[in-house]
Design a protein that fits this description.
The chain is mainly α. Helix content is 44%, strand content 2%. The chain folds into 3 domains: 128 residues, no CATH class; 131 residues, Cytochrome c-like domain (Cytochrome Bc1 Complex, Chain D, domain 2, Orthogonal Bundle); 146 residues, Cytochrome Bc1 Complex, Chain D, domain 2 (Orthogonal Bundle), CATH 1.10.760.10. It contains 20 helices and 4 strands. It starts with a helix and ends in a 7-residue tail after the last strand.
């Protein structure tokens, strides 16, 4: 046999063997498995946890000179963007996986960005074949429909990563009425000048439109005041998540020396107790009378009424195709294409996870060069509560409802316009530069997120 023929035969045999091995390691999940089990198998085959977890199992060659740097970088970036462990654990135990986690997995599947080519060239079974992709995407839809049913949306939008704001949220009307009074009561502050509404104005879209809010004695806080509207849909409160509930959040500012400056709630109770009419009204609803727990509970009940349904986008999701303009509809498509709908998922389009500020580029370095401002305590984010280095610069993702009215943007209030906010998010969180035309369409879509409060379109008396 000629040498060339031998080479050709060897090549054919090699390709055949490789094809057999490739087929063997790329088995698709059995149809008998549940959606969660199918998705778990594909994620496991894909080796997702080897980069997207806190303590990954490293391959034997991980410490080789060239591989060490490359693998280490991939693991660091992978874990920074997505810790897959809670998601996989939820699938294993039958608990509800996070909406953001579902959206991230779905987007990764749809654009084929994971696993990285360098990874599956070595780990053949990790590659997501067309068949695996089809099964995994169907599994995500099934899981989302099970844990996050969306009956108010039109059938074609029922499995979107974003859901309409409901018409109401469960609350106690009598307690909420008291909470409304307390929310606007300056007696909650040490010098009688600041109320909850000072920084979170009901007439100003739940914010004060200042970079940093002003508390007693002209002091300024270290982070931008987020909107109180739709805050009941957030999984925790404050940028750093230090409050698990609305009531716990309501108890923070009164005792903050920069915000309301009281030494204790006994001080607040003493002032309120002198108002006999208010005390009678309050004890009729709360027999235990004025306590820190009852005061903050009442405020929380009121805040549950501050929801803004029936935005043009909500009406569009419910089937009214004329509710949004053609540009806004295109903007929503781009919003999903540029991965915005992964972190900004759910009813409030955010408020469901802590995300690293600067996943693809160094946000703080750029900010410091632009604004000549160094890092502050407020920039530490979730780290301030956990002390875990991974949590430094991670913040609760803000909800985007009514975002056109809640400038300035970001935790540091450093961005004045939606245009700039969209561009910087794309650069620092997604690693892409968005064309002007796309920015305009996305901004137009964000305008369609302004909902209604008490049956009227939400407005902002500070509107520029």
């Amino acid at each position: 046999m000629k040498k060339s023929s031998k080479i050709l035969l060897a090549a054919v045999v090699t390709i055949a063997v490789l094809a057999i091995v490739y087929r063997a390691v790329n088995t698709v999940p059995s149809a008998d498995k549940s959606a969660a089990e199918q998705l778990l198998q594909i994620l496991d085959d894909g080796g997702c946890a080897e980069c997207h977890s806190a303590d990954p199992e490293m391959p034997f060659y991980a410490n080789w000179p060239v591989a060490k740097s490359l693998i280490g970088k991939h693991v660091e970036k992978g874990y920074a963007v997505f810790d897959i462990a809670p998601f996989e654990e939820a699938l294993e135990t039958g608990d509800a996986p996070g909406e953001v986690d579902l959206a991230k997995v779905e987007k990764t599947l749809s654009d084929g960005s994971m696993p990285l080519a360098q990874y599956y060239l070595i780990h053949w079974g990790s590659s997501v074949t067309d068949r695996k992709k089809s099964i995994a995407e169907a599994a995500v839809r099934t899981i989302r429909a099970e844990y996050y049913p969306n009956p108010s949306a039109a059938p074609e939008f029922a499995n979107e990563p974003v859901r309409p704001v409901p018409e109401s949220y469960p609350h106690d009307p009598l307690k909420a009425a008291l909470g409304e009074l307390l929310y606007h009561d300056t007696r909650l502050s040490a010098d009688g000048t600041v109320s909850c509404a000072t920084c979170h104005g009901i007439e100003t879209a739940g914010v004060d439109n200042k970079r940093y809010s002003e508390g007693i004695g002209g002091q300024f806080g270290g982070v931008n005041a987020p909107t109180v509207y739709n805050s009941c849909f957030n999984f925790v409160q404050f940028w750093d998540g230090r409050a698990a509930t609305l009531a716990e959040q309501a108890g923070g500012p009164p005792l903050n020396p920069v915000e309301m400056g009281c030494q204790s709630f006994d001080e607040i109770i003493g002032r309120l107790s002198s108002d006999r009419a208010f005390v009678r009204k309050f004890t009729a609803v709360y027999p235990d009378g004025l306590t820190q727990e009852t005061i903050t509970d009442a405020i929380a009940e009121y805040e549950k009424t501050l929801i803004t349904p029936d935005s043009p986008f909500d009406r569009y999701l419910k089937g009214d195709k004329s509710a949004m303009t053609a540009e806004q509809i295109e903007g929503y498509g781009l919003f999903k294409e540029y991965s915005c709908a992964t972190c900004h998922a759910g009813v409030n389009m955010g408020g469901l996870t802590f995300e690293l500020m600067g996943q693809r580029d160094n946000y703080f370095e750029d900010r410091d060069l632009t604004l000549k401002s160094g890092l502050t305590d407020g920039d530490n984010g979730r780290w301030a509560q956990t002390g875990e280095e991974r949590d430094r610069y991670r913040f609760k993702t803000p909800g985007l409802r009514n975002v056109a009215l809640t400038w300035p943007y970001y935790h540091d209030g450093s961005v004045a316009t939606l245009d700039e906010a969209v561009r910087k998010m794309a650069r620092f969180q997604v690693g892409r530069n968005i064309p002007d035309e796309d920015v305009q369409k996305i901004e137009s879509f964000l305008d369609a997120l302004t909902g209604q409060y008490q049956g009227k379109p939400l407005t902002n008396t500070n509107q520029k």
